[in-house]
Specification:
four-stranded antiparallel beta sheet, 8 strands
Length: 135
C-alpha cells in the first residue's frame, strides 16, 4: 500500500445534547473528502491521550477519486437565449458538448451572475467550470 498526502480538520460541534467532535480527512491530490468521523468529546479526549478503541461513527465517502489528480478548467459556453425559459435539458445539452476526456461540467454555473459573459437576442454566454480526476 502507498502512503498518500492528506489533510485533517477537527471541529467541535455545539448545539446537540452532547458536544461532539467531527473529523474530516481529505486526499490532497484529488481534493476529495475520504472519511468523516463523529465522536463524543469525552471519547475523543480519551483517544488522543492513549486510550485505544474508542467508539465513533464514520461516513466513508466515494473513494474512486482518491490518489488521482484533480484538474479544473473553465469554458465559455453559449446557450440559446430564451428570456429565462431555458430547460435543464437545454442547459445540459449545451454543456455536454464540452464533456470530453473525463471533464464534468458544473451545471450550477449557468445562471450565476458571477459567471455571466454576455448576451444578445439570440444567445447568452456563461463561463462554466469543468472538473476531472486523472491518474
Amino acid at each position: 500500500m502507498k502512503m498518500l498526502d492528506g489533510k485533517i480538520s477537527i471541529h467541535a460541534e455545539m448545539g446537540r445534547e452532547e458536544r461532539r467532535v467531527v473529523i474530516f480527512i481529505e486526499d490532497t491530490l484529488s481534493t476529495t473528502e475520504i472519511i468523516q468521523v463523529e465522536m463524543t468529546m469525552a471519547d475523543f479526549g480519551n483517544a488522543i491521550t492513549g486510550h485505544g478503541h474508542m467508539p465513533m461513527k464514520f461516513l466513508l465517502q466515494d473513494t474512486s477519486k482518491v490518489g488521482k489528480k484533480h484538474e479544473v478548467k473553465t469554458e465559455k459556453v453559449t446557450f440559446k437565449y430564451k428570456n429565462g425559459d431555458i430547460t435543464k435539458e437545454e442547459i445540459n445539452k449545451a454543456i455536454h458538448k464540452y464533456e470530453v476526456d473525463g471533464w464534468i461540467g458544473q451545471v450550477k454555473d449557468y445562471g450565476n451572475h458571477h459567471n455571466f459573459v454576455k448576451s444578445d437576442k439570440e444567445k447568452e454566454i456563461y463561463k462554466i467550470g469543468f472538473r476531472r480526476w486523472v491518474d
